[in-house]
Design goal:
about 280 residues; alpha/beta; nine-stranded mixed sheet; globular
């Protein structure tokens, strides 16, 4: 079984409920308290991969503060190797401000903090990877670092999986290295408009499944009354997908595992299991 190395963000999620999301220039009152959860696409996906049984290492940055140290202990206690996560002095750990409406849809504003300080020098952990391993990356850390990581991993025969979220135009050669490049419906439209042609694209459609290079796979629908929070569904999908690919699963098996993880995620609050930080 291969390993999964996740390059990405680590955030403290500050989450509250609202009846509806405000229009531009409008103020709405929260309908619940402000909760603190562990988040960040990178850490979310790393923990999802670990929960799916993979051997996982995390590459990223947190602030040299109480939040950052607490987060590293959280990851280690759940089996994630944090030796390649750097503590950045005088910079806060990243934060995400999340509002969840009465229909369980969310809006998110990310304050990168230490995530913006990830550098190519932080990628030394990739040198231990080999064929059969998987690099999983998202775009909440500097794009040049993601590009360097993809090139470095691919040169070692490592499978590269990139979740193009939040969407940004990847260099053409980096997009071509991804197998697959994972996007949701909105990101897929932006990708089509960019003119970039990846080698492999997986488009997710929530409970309706996904399409991988044009092949359609059914999803696992969740009854509306069971949906609690959609915040972490995409991250759970990507982490479980990478774990399945690292253990040698074919596309159908990998997508099935990923869809099941995504469906489980929407049934709970926060982007991670037992998410309070």
């Amino acid at each position: 079984m291969g390993r999964v190395v996740v390059l990405g963000s680590l955030n403290v999620d500050l989450v509250t409920d609202v009846e509806r999301h405000p229009r531009p220039g409008e103020t709405v009152l929260a309908t619940g308290p402000l909760a603190r959860y562990a988040g960040g696409k990178g850490a979310n996906q790393a923990l999802a991969a670990a929960a799916a049984g993979a051997s996982v290492a995390m590459v990223g940055c947190v602030g040299d503060d109480a939040d950052g140290r607490r987060y590293l202990e959280r990851l280690r206690s759940r089996g994630v190797d944090t030796s390649a996560v750097r503590l950045v002095p005088d910079v806060p750990t990243g934060q995400a401000w999340i509002a969840v409406d009465a229909d369980s849809e969310n809006t998110i504003v990310v304050v990168p903090g230490a995530n913006a300080h990830v550098e190519t020098e932080d990628l030394a952990a990739l040198d231990s990877l080999a064929e059969g391993d998987v690099l999983l990356a998202q775009l909440e850390v500097p794009l040049p670092v993601v590009a360097a990581a993809a090139r470095r991993a691919s040169a070692r025969g490592v499978r590269v999986v990139i979740n193009a979220a939040p969407y940004a135009a990847l260099p053409h050669d980096v997009a071509a290295l991804a197998d697959p490049l994972v996007v949701n419906e909105h990101e897929a439209l932006a990708l089509a408009d960019s003119g970039i042609v990846p080698t492999s694209v997986l488009v997710t459609f929530g409970g309706e499944g996904c399409s991988w290079d044009g092949e359609r796979f059914d999803g696992e629908e969740v009854p509306l009354e069971e949906v609690v929070d959609t915040t972490g569904a995409g991250d759970a999908f990507c982490g479980a997908l990478a774990a399945a690919l690292a253990r040698g699963a074919d596309r159908a098996e990998a997508v099935q595992a990923a869809s099941r993880a995504g469906a489980d995620a929407v049934r709970r609050q926060g982007a991670q299991q037992d998410p309070r930080l």
